[in-house]
């Protein structure tokens, strides 16, 4: 068996095109183009690349690029004041604080200042609570992107056994809740899980988001399972994920590649969240 490749690059392109059409429709209906305020603190090269890509695709979708850059030695009060300024600005539909911030800043406290309706990363406790209760709200971008991929490839979820490896607030926990909301039976694994491969082998849908290179091998995958690799690691051999992809592809039914799988979906869902936020704020939600 050779696993079907889940092409996140192609799906992300379609999502971005849909967002672009949605932005044009919003403006045609008399609304304002959504404004995305990315906030970068310091000069971390990787963060600069991520933010630059977000800004470029934001503009390509017809949105306003309202980027703000703070020096790496900015104090907590000044960073908080900027978040408050953006929160009060009606041109700003969504606020994204690029993580990680410099160590001297309390990023959780800064995120807590973002209004839930502008929290396009879906990381505030308000949006986390809405997700936990199954109520409408802005969802974290990476898990939302995984759900979009599963839907695009018609992966059955109702009644399926799903295993999520990783319990971060960014991916693992919201991923489990989104799968549960679609009537999957969900198991969450973590660093203290006994016999991880045995648990993973139960999965019809296996989502690996542990941040550990090559954590899941062939012995941890049930024949025909759908495997979603959220991990990304840069090494001498290029980008790789949390899954030993070559070996797993021999037994899985479908597999996301690294790169080109989940990664492109994260920015696409950020843009979708920003459009949703703008519609709600302008009273033009569907």
Automatic annotation (TrEMBL):
Ranges for domain Tetrahydrofolate dehydrogenase/cyclohydrolase catalytic: 6-121
Tetrahydrofolate dehydrogenase/cyclohydrolase NAD(P)-binding domain ranges (all copies): 140-281
Superkingdom as given in the UniProt entry: Bacteria
Biological process (GO), any one: L-histidine biosynthetic process
InterPro entries linked: Aminoacid_DH-like_N_sf, NAD(P)-bd_dom_sf, THF_DH/CycHdrlase, THF_DH/CycHdrlase_cat_dom, THF_DH/CycHdrlase_CS, THF_DH/CycHdrlase_NAD-bd_dom
HAMAP family associated with the record: THF_DHG_CYH
Family designation: Belongs to the tetrahydrofolate dehydrogenase/cyclohydrolase family.
Subunit structure as annotated in this protein's UniProt entry: Homodimer.
Protein name: Bifunctional protein FolD
Record organism: Geodermatophilus tzadiensis
Gene coding for it: folD
């Amino acid at each position: 068996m050779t696993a079907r490749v889940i092409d996140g690059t192609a799906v992300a392109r379609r999502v971005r095109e849909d967002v672009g059409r949605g932005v044009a429709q919003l403006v045609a209906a008399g609304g304002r183009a959504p404004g995305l305020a990315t906030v970068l603190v310091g000069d971390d090269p990787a963060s600069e690349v991520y933010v630059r890509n977000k800004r470029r695709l934001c503009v390509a979708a017809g949105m306003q690029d309202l980027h703000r850059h703070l020096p790496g030695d900015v104090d907590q009060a000044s960073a908080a004041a900027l978040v408050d300024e953006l929160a009060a600005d009606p041109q700003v539909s969504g606020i994204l604080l690029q993580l990680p911030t410099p160590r001297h800043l309390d990023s959780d406290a800064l995120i807590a200042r973002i209004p839930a309706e502008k929290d396009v990363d879906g990381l505030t406790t308000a949006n986390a609570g809405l997700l936990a209760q199954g109520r409408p709200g802005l969802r974290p971008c990476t898990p939302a992107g995984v759900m979009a991929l599963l839907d695009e490839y018609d992966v059955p979820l109702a009644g399926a056994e799903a295993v999520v490896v990783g319990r971060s607030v960014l991916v693992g926990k919201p991923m489990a809740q989104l799968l549960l909301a679609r009537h999957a039976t969900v198991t969450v694994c973590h660093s203290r899980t006994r016999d991880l491969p045995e648990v993973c082998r139960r999965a019809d849908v296996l989502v690996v988001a542990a941040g550990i290179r090559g954590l899941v091998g062939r012995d941890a995958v049930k024949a025909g399972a759908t495997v979603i690799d959220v991990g990304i690691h840069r090494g001498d051999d290029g980008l790789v994920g949390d899954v030993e992809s070559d070996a797993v592809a021999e037994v899985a039914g479908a597999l996301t590649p690294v790169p080109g799988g989940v990664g492109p979906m994260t920015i696409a869902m950020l843009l979708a969240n920003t459009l949703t936020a703008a519609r709600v704020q302008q009273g033009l939600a569907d």
